[in-house]
């Protein structure tokens, strides 16, 4: 389940929430059956809380949104992608520490 500052992104709201976002968007590609995805979820929620206003954070369930996963060429999960408009400015696969992720994000914003 996503934290209070984490959006659920679908094909229906992708344009509004991602492409038209005023700030970069960190997208967490995940699935309910993925243990590493569950491990990184609290980190994603904490980053969303700490970086409110600097970035927007959303989750895309790869089972429910296969076209979006395909558009980002997601091969394994968890995959994190950060976008600015239609450009992917960062991509990270696997579980990383919160500090490592925060450094990667801050280097791009």
How far apart the termini lie comes to 26 Å
Which residues sit in consecutive blocks of at least 5 with pLDDT less than 50? none
Mean pLDDT: 96
Highest CATH level, the class: Alpha Beta
Q: In the CATH hierarchy, what is the superfamily?
A: Glutaredoxin
What strand line-up does the widest sheet have? 1-3-2-4-5
Large-scale geometry: globular
What integer value in Å does the Rg equal?
Answer: 12 Å
> Helix amount, in percent?
25-40%
The number of helices is 4
Write down the domain tally: 1
- Could you spell the SSE succession in H and E letters? EHEHEHEEH
Query: What can be said about the biggest beta sheet?
Result: 5 strands, mixed
CATH topology: Glutaredoxin
CATH architecture, please? 3-Layer(aba) Sandwich
The fraction of residues assigned to DSSP E strands is 25-35%
Strand pairing plus helix content: what structural class? alpha/beta
**Count of beta strands:** 5
How would you portray this structure in words?
The protein has 109 residues and is an alpha/beta fold. The chain has a single domain, classed as Glutaredoxin, CATH 3.40.30.10. The chain has a five-stranded mixed beta sheet, with helices on both faces. The longest helix has 16 residues. The model has no long low-confidence stretch (mean pLDDT 96).
């Amino acid at each position: 389940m996503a934290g209070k500052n984490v959006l659920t992104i679908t094909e229906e709201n992708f344009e509004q929430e991602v492409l038209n976002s005023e700030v970069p968007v960190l997208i967490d590609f995940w699935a309910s059956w993925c243990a590493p995805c569950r491990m990184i979820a609290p980190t994603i929620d904490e980053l969303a809380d700490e970086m409110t206003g600097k970035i927007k954070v959303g989750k895309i369930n790869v089972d429910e949104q296969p076209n979006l996963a395909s558009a980002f060429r997601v091969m394994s999960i968890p995959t994190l992608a950060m976008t600015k408009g239609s450009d992917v400015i960062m991509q990270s696969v696997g579980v990383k520490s919160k500090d490592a992720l925060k450094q990667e994000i801050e280097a791009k914003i």
